[in-house]
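Dear colleagues,

As part of the handover before I leave the project, I'm documenting each prediction I ran so the next person doesn't have to rerun anything. This entry is a single chain, and its sequence is reproduced below.
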Amino acid sequence: MSDGRPVGGQLKKFVFRGKSASNGDTRGEYLEIVIPELLSAGYSFYTWPSAPLLAWYLWTQRRHLRGLRVLELGCGTGLPGILAAKCGAHVTLTDSVALPRSLLHLSDCCEANGLVPGRDVHLLGLAWGLFLAEVHTLRPVDLLLASDCFYEPSQFEEVLSTVAYLLDGTDGRFLCAYQERSADWSIEALLKKWGLKGSLLDLDSLSESSGVDYRALIGDRSLHLLEIISV
């Protein structure tokens, strides 16, 4: 994965709407997140298709986010984590420690949404599968997030070993939105190896209850939302 050299950019806007929980309030709820994206050779300078799906799910659960300790892995532009922070969660955003330019861009994404790194949200460089001192400080975590972290098969075990460590001995859960790229790729054996259990969330039911058609978010892509817990 290359950190890349930015050669141009755009500002992408994501709008989330919903009914207010207040009695008699018909104005509804509204949240707008803007992400500065860069046309670059690096993966982490633009928002991957799975991220809006995960962010949409978090928006449907926004009333349960306040006060939660949330950690996003491999967050790139950080859309889901930024949304969680705007909804009152205590959020740490992480990406590869080997990509310092990506972490700087992540800081820009936070600031574009009124979040001050170090005050409103925390940023950290991580190496999946390496349990260095900074990893220990991240526990306990209520909710782990990731979008398209199952992209390189050679990294699947690194991702899941990190998840297993962070969830071990807790009631926390890992929510991962991912795009199905090959029917031959599977994490079932790795889940069992690391004492984890996964299940797909029913997007149709979520779409019906929220009044938002998730298919409008994903188009013709084969996207899924996976929940993983420690067993």
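Strands lie at 9-18, 29-38, 69-73, 90-96, 122-126, 143-147, 173-179, 196-200, 223-230. The chain has a mean pLDDT of 88.

All the best with the project,
I.
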